[in-house]
Specification:
single chain, alpha/beta, Rossmann fold, 4-stranded parallel β-sheet, iron, metal-binding, FldB/FldC_alpha/beta
């Protein structure tokens, strides 16, 4: 089977209809036992140290794993991707561009996806057939989400992991579906573990995956993972076609569109506080100004760089933030 890498979530239904095995280069990078090697490959190749670690990791993962075809999202994601794909081309990688229209106009989204389908020589009916097939898997991920924020049985990390994996379905739809079915049964069989503090994680997925276990030491849990949940397309059954599905997807569009869904989830999930994660050297850090101005719950911005574990300073800030929320809740009583 042909293998194709992606720099972020794209209309995967098109790629699957075209017969590809899809690999999210982000997942390939961050799940590696020696993830730092990928960053080193990029820096030895000329990538500056003052550049997002994700971009360098994606580059290194692509070359090291001999991914010869890549879809690069040139609008609606990291602005550095435009330069990344040029360097990938220089290294012999065949690159296909995809863009999420800034306007989020349904006609422009439709045109962009139709161009994508033409690029891979697939028909709309084939794409819709794949989209229908993926609904069962998306439903399983949504069930695990509910086991997290409603049933208090799934951990924040499990919710993060099984949502983010839907960007490429771990490269094998059937194996991934079976894994989700088994995991759902195992989680559902647990006793509920209610935490005092309910947190939201918003922003790009973290380099520091240990953040989930860390907050649970302080009687807190993440019960909402914003971008990871969007990768899983939780509203898949509220749309009529592939065009509406990707128009309804919040991640690639402006922060105000994202905030509409974030506010809704904060209310529904009874969120006490928000952790806004940003990556070093990323423009999204500026959005923290808007987020803090718009949300009615406490917000803590933390920043990650190359290290995949929380540093001491960030741990202290998280602990103090959780303590503050706990004190506020006691005062309200």
């Amino acid at each position: 089977m042909k293998v194709i890498g992606i720099t972020t979530t794209v209309p995967i239904e098109v790629l699957l209809a075209a017969g590809y095995k899809v690999v999210d280069l982000n997942n390939l990078f961050i799940t590696s036992a020696d993830y730092g090697r990928y960053i080193d490959i990029a820096e030895r190749g000329g990538f500056p140290k003052s550049l997002c670690a994700w971009i360098k990791g994606i580059f290194g993962a692509c070359l090291e794993n001999k991914i010869n075809e890549v879809v690069g999202v040139i609008e609606g994601d990291c602005s550095n991707t435009k330069a990344l794909i040029e360097v990938l081309k220089l290294n012999g990688v065949k690159v296909y561009p995809f863009a999420y229209p800034h306007s989020r106009n349904i006609d422009e989204v439709k045109k962009s996806i139709q161009n994508f389908m033409e690029l891979f020589k697939v028909k709309e009916e084939d794409v819709e057939e794949v989209r229908e097939k993926l609904k069962e898997i998306r439903s399983l991920a949504r069930d695990i989400d509910e086991l997290n924020y409603i049933e208090n049985k799934a951990t924040g990390f499990e919710n993060h992991l099984f949502q983010i994996a839907l960007s490429d379905f771990n490269g094998d739809l059937e194996k991934f579906k079976i894994m989700l079915i088994d995991k759902k049964k195992e989680i559902a069989s647990r006793e509920a573990d209610v935490k005092k503090i309910r947190l939201a994680y918003i922003g790009v997925p973290p380099m520091t995956g240990d953040i989930y276990d860390f907050v649970e030491k302080f009687d807190a849990r993440f019960v909402y993972n914003e971008v990871q949940r969007e990768f899983a397309f939780p509203r898949f059954d509220e749309v009529r076609n592939i065009y509406e599905q990707y128009c309804n997807y919040t991640y690639p569009y402006d922060v105000h569109f994202r905030l509409h869904e974030i506010k809704k989830q904060i209310k529904e999930r009874k969120i006490d506080g928000v952790i806004h994660y940003t990556q070093a050297f990323c423009y999204r850090a500026i959005e923290d100004i808007i987020i803090k101005n718009e949300l009615d719950v406490p917000v803590l911005n933390i920043e990650g760089d190359k290290i995949n574990e929380l540093d001491s300073r960030t741990k202290l800030r998280l602990e103090a933030f959780i303590d503050m929320i706990a004190d506020q809740k006691e005062e309200i009583k």
